[in-house]
């Protein structure tokens, strides 16, 4: 059998998604997530204008060869657009292979290494009272781990904080449909550094020591600021401090490591193992944060996580709402199978999205399971998808109070 058609489906059920549909000559369909938040059309074009025709007639079973063909063939390599496109092809081919085998994908990756995949939710609030309410709500749903983000005095809307009112699930959607340019947010690191340790102290006082607390610095600190922050929050026993500095400066974390044992997670903006080489070989991080969708797919992610395992580093795969249910399912199959699993991010998709993507993964008391459907276990309803037209959306741009552009 061979690949007969490769179609790109762009849909926007509340937020934008790009999905690749590969159909074989025997009519088997595989799905791949190609969503790159704020740059969706670039990946859609890379696939439809440059990749799709090269897939037709290829043996769908030759996944590794196709991966190498798409990585080395174009000459230009790496980068979020290229690697998201390769990821979509890779996911779709693994979906097809597992469907042909009549097995859930995790069985082809070595079978289950655990009963379920511990996940963390996003708890946020403009102030501590709202954050406390959100944490309580997620604990009541059975979550044993929450990422906590809160407003900072003197600042308006900042990354990670939902403006939604009190309730259990704050649907924090960072991409804004802001017309022809991004919205802008303001930031002051000093306010943040002075404010956050007290928030963690309050959380520990209110919720005790068992709850796993995660926090996302979102690239906004300098190396010495990150070193101070990681040291200041050490007493609160975070599960991880994420993206404490802009990760591309891999050696910056040597300074943070010198000052603190707070576990570090980095990599959601990375797209290849080479982005991690120093971080992993020098054990500068404890968790690999990439999404399957942004790192070249299941083939590349498995190799990356196996490399990390050699250094005692675990997975912490990226799972926000801008990773589609297809990308989330791919993560869950890897999470269930690999030995060095750490934790899985889980921002539940909204109802509109779940009408377009029929999923089979299940949530039970803080753990997800990918399900035992053959393949990835997600099907896209093309009629439902057609009902949600693409609308351009941008991630915000961040500026310091003096107007200097800063990492968002
Ligand atoms: C996370 C991420 C997200 C990103 C978003 C960008 O930890 O989930 O930091 O919140 O900002 O995925 O599209
Ligand atoms: Mg993050």
Automatic annotation (TrEMBL):
<feature type="domain" description="Mandelate racemase/muconate lactonizing enzyme C-terminal">
    <location>
        <begin position="128"/>
        <end position="263"/>
    </location>
</feature>
<protein>
    <submittedName>
        <fullName>Mannonate dehydratase</fullName>
        <ecNumber>4.2.1.8</ecNumber>
    </submittedName>
</protein>
<dbReference type="InterPro" id="IPR034589">
    <property type="entry name" value="D-mannonate_dehydratase-like"/>
</dbReference>
<dbReference type="InterPro" id="IPR013341">
    <property type="entry name" value="Mandelate_racemase_N_dom"/>
</dbReference>
<keyword id="KW-0456">Lyase</keyword>
<dbReference type="InterPro" id="IPR034593">
    <property type="entry name" value="DgoD-like"/>
</dbReference>
<dbReference type="InterPro" id="IPR018110">
    <property type="entry name" value="Mandel_Rmase/mucon_lact_enz_CS"/>
</dbReference>
<dbReference type="InterPro" id="IPR029017">
    <property type="entry name" value="Enolase-like_N"/>
</dbReference>
<dbReference type="InterPro" id="IPR013342">
    <property type="entry name" value="Mandelate_racemase_C"/>
</dbReference>
<dbReference type="Pfam" id="PF13378">
    <property type="entry name" value="MR_MLE_C"/>
</dbReference>
<dbReference type="Pfam" id="PF02746">
    <property type="entry name" value="MR_MLE_N"/>
</dbReference>
<dbReference type="InterPro" id="IPR029065">
    <property type="entry name" value="Enolase_C-like"/>
</dbReference>
<dbReference type="GO" id="GO:0008927">
    <property type="term" value="F:mannonate dehydratase activity"/>
</dbReference>
<dbReference type="InterPro" id="IPR036849">
    <property type="entry name" value="Enolase-like_C_sf"/>
</dbReference>
């Amino acid at each position: 059998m061979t690949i007969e058609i490769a179609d790109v489906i762009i849909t926007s059920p509340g937020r934008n998604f790009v999905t690749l549909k590969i159909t074989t000559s025997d009519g088997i369909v595989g799905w791949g997530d190609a969503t790159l938040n704020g740059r969706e059309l670039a990946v859609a074009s890379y696939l439809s204008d440059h990749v799709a025709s090269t897939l037709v007639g290829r043996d769908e079973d030759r996944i590794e060869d196709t991966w190498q063909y798409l990585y080395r063939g174009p000459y230009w390599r790496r980068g979020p657009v290229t690697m998201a496109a390769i990821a979509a092809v890779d996911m779709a081919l693994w979906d097809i292979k597992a469907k042909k085998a009549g097995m859930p994908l995790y069985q082809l990756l070595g079978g289950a290494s655990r009963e379920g995949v511990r996940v963390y939710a996003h708890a946020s609030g403009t102030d501590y009272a709202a954050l406390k309410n959100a944490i309580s709500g997620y604990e009541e749903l059975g979550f044993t781990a929450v990422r906590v983000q809160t407003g900072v005095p003197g600042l308006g809307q900042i990354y990670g904080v939902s403006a939604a009112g009190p309730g259990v699930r704050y649907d924090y959607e960072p991409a804004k449909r802001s017309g022809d340019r991004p919205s802008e947010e303001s930031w002051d690191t000093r306010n943040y550094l002075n404010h956050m340790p007290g928030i963690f102290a309050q959380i520990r006082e209110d919720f005790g020591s068992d709850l796993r607390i995660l926090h996302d610095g979102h690239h906004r600190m300098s190396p010495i600021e990150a070193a101070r922050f990681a040291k200041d929050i050490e007493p609160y026993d975070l599960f991880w401090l994420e993206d404490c500095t802009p990760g591309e400066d891999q050696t910056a974390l040597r300074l943070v490591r010198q000052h603190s044992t707070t576990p570090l997670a980095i990599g959601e903006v990375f797209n290849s193992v080479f982005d991690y080489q120093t971080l992993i070989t020098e054990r500068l991080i404890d968790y690999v944060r990439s999404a399957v969708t942004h790192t070249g797919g299941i083939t590349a992610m498995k190799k990356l996580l196996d490399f990390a395992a050699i250094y005692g580093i675990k997975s912490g795969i990226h799972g926000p709402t801008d990773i589609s249910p297809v990308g989330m399912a791919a993560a869950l199959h890897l999470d269930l199978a690999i030995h060095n699993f750490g934790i899985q991010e889980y921002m539940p998709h909204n109802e509109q999205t779940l009408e377009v993507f029929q999923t089979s993964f299940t949530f039970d008391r803080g753990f997800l399971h990918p399900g035992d459907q053959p393949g990835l276990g997600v099907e896209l309803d093309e009629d439902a998808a057609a009902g949600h037209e693409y609308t351009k959306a941008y991630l915000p741009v961040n500026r310091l109070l003096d107007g200097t552009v800063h990492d968002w």
